[in-house]
Amino acid sequence: MKKHLSSSVSDYFVLGIVYLNQKIKRIIAFILVVCFIGNSCIPAKHVAATTNYELIDTSETEVTDSEDESVTTKTDESIVYPTTEDADFDITSVAIKAEVANLRTANTKTFLRMDGTFVVAIYGETIHYEKDGKFYNIDNRLSYSDLTDSYRNTANTFSIDFPETITDGKSISLTQGEYEIKWRVDNVKNSTIAYDQ
Question: Residue 176, CB half-sphere, CA atoms under 13 Å: how many?
Fold first, then answer.
């Protein structure tokens, strides 16, 4: 059974609600326009200067050790770069200042350009591994250890150990966290290796 209002709603009341609804929409639209205009007036270099980024100097050509990455910033040079408002603007002409290490993901690197803009390099494979909430460069170069007489990859979420020479009793091991897999070649002297060139 339907209940009816005991008093009727006047037309003026309904018109008043509609009028307030339209005024509120206009006020919200005005505030949004002001915010968008305000954000577009702030230059990107001022935003980058006030944000706490961990910068890694990209001028070095050698890969840094993943655990001891130095945090450095280059001094600003007095080079005036063209802006997007210039007719001859070419974004590729703006040099990269540093890598922003705290914006890394498993397969991306973010770079800060000299003019304060950012560029993101996206890779088709994983290039960083995560440790304690930070991403580090994967380094699969092998280093030799006299102690274990084996080669080990330098930096990754896993470690793999290869003996210098494969003989009976020596195994290859793959370790990730608390898990380990080991395998070896039995009867090495009677084994042959075939490979395609």
Answer: 5
Report how far residue 159's alpha carbon sits from residue 175's, in angstroms, rounded to the nearest whole number.
5
Q: Is the pTM of this model over 0.70?
A: no
Q: Which of 156, 191, 187 is nearest to 174 (CA)?
A: 156
Q: How far apart are CA 94 and CA 108, in angstroms?
A: 20
Q: How far apart are CA 161 and CA 144, in angstroms?
A: 10
Q: What is the pLDDT of residues 111-144, one digit of tens each?
A: 998 888 889 999 999 999 999 999 999 999 999 9
**How many whole angstroms separate alpha carbon 126 and alpha carbon 141?**
16
Separation between Cα atoms, residue 181 and residue 179, nearest integer Å: 7
Find all residues with CB under 8 Å of 176, minimum gap 6, and list them.
Answer: 157, 158, 159
DSSP state of 38: H
